[in-house]
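FORM 7B: Structural annotation worksheet

SECTION A. Query
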Amino acid sequence: MPNRHLAGIRAGALLLMLAVTGCSQMTHSAVGTLLYTTPTDEAVLIENPVTRGCHSLGPVGAKAVTNNTLNDIVLYEGANCRQPQGAETVYVATLFSDSIVPGHPAWRSFSFVGV
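SECTION B. Predicted structure
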């Protein structure tokens, strides 16, 4: 009897995972949150962001970003997901975070990888 109960829990968890994945693909949103800290130490939380296009990190940008979505992101120093000449993008995998090196400009925008 306990084995059937455990099998039922596993099957339910699998169905839930498939449903969440399917819903996120239909709505084109990244499941989870993106948390960033502005240069003035304000914390900003973005929930279930749309995966398509470029996203602004507010008027002052971000000095630290935590990616708690199911999708990897790329951070840009420039607005509209463009980089200034010679600047490099920063890749932040799902469930990871990064922060700027002191003295470097804040990140101003981000986009999702592979969507």
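SECTION C. Observations
The first helix runs from residue 2 to 27. Residues 29-112 form a domain with the Gamma-B Crystallin; domain 1 fold (CATH 2.60.20.10).

SECTION D. Sign-off
Analyst initials: ____
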